[in-house]
Amino acid sequence: MLVQESPWHAHAAQRTAARLAEPLSVPARMEWTTRPGQGPGAEILGPDLRGKRLLELGCGPGHNAAHLATRHGAHVTGVDLVGLQVRRARSHYGRLNNLTFVAGHALHYLHASDERFDAIYSVFGAVGLVAPELLFPAIARHLTPGRVLAFSVPHPQRGGRAPSGDDGPRRDFVSIPDGTRLPIARWEFAADRWERHLSRAGFRLTSALEFHDSRMGHWPTTLLIRARRI
Questions:
Q1: Which residues face 75 on adjacent strands?
Q2: Average pLDDT of the residues of the chain
Q3: What backbone torsions phi and psi does residue 12 show, to the nearest 5 degrees?
Q4: What is the mean pLDDT of residues 13-19?
Q5: What secondary structure letter does DSSP report for 5?
Q6: Whole-angstrom distance between the N-terminal and C-terminal Cα of the chain?
Q7: How far is 208 from 227, CA to CA, in rounded Å?
Q8: pTM more than 0.90
Q9: For 172, what's the count of Cα atoms within 13 Å in the CB-facing half-sphere?
């Protein structure tokens, strides 16, 4: 019931009502930002992903997972909190090999599974929406030393705001297709604070990239973090 009443369920419900969930062609590249074609693609997860096991936390309609499974030959599991999103992902890409979509909370999935992955990633997904002091240690248990965690989050300075000054979440909003803005809690850190949380969980930050989207003003819009398990 909590999932059905969440802003993310409302967002998925309106998208489903507005557009049929049907088989789609696989995207030509992996997207990390709000602007298609910007920044790195799948190479941030590793130089050769064929046969590698990847986990996406917050897969949404499955576009990135489908790209990685088909264009790079990876075995990809996509987890999403909202069952409607998982149904959309399966409708879009369920015909593809090496691709599994699971409905569930990221933390619950990580605690219930004993599978090891070659990389774990999140694109405006669970990272930033789940307490990092809980999520990062859970992720670390599924990565052997040297393996990659990569995630993109809304930039904490987007729209002229300032990054969080403490480790707690702050109030943000998600806009759903009808224009309604629904409140959510989001962790919005600058790169140095993300680095501290990653270090506590046994990761070493290897890059922090920020990107702009000219459609949204001159402030940066996306922060892309890459780290390795120590």
A1: 53
A2: 92
A3: -65, -40
A4: 63
A5: T
A6: 38
A7: 9
A8: yes
A9: 22
Q: Helix, strand or coil for residue 100?
A: strand
CA–CA gap between residue 205 and residue 229 (Å, rounded): 9
Pairing assessment for the beta strands 170-175 and 143-154 based on DSSP bridges: unpaired
- From the list 152, 229, 230, the residue with the least C-alpha distance to 191 is 152
What angle (nearest 5°) sits at the alpha carbon of residue 93, between those of residues 64 and 150?
Answer: 20
Q: In CATH, which superfamily holds the domain spanning 7-21+48-229?
A: Vaccinia Virus protein VP39 (3.40.50.150)
* Sheet with 75-80, edge to edge strand ranges: 99-103, 75-80, 53-57, 117-123, 143-154, 220-229, 203-212
Distance CA 215, CA 29 (A): 21
- Give the tens place of pLDDT for each residue, 158-174: 999 999 999 999 999 98
**Rg (alpha carbons) of the chain, rounded to whole number:** 17
**Helix H or strand E segment including 102:** strand 99-103
Q: What percentage of the chain reaches a pLDDT higher than 70?
A: 92
Place of tokens 């990221």: 106
pLDDT at 3 over 80: no
- Taking only the tens place, the pLDDT of each residue in 30-88 is 999 999 999 999 999 999 999 999 999 999 999 999 999 999 999 999 999 999 899 99
Residue 55 in contact with residue 121, Cβ under 8 Å?
A: yes
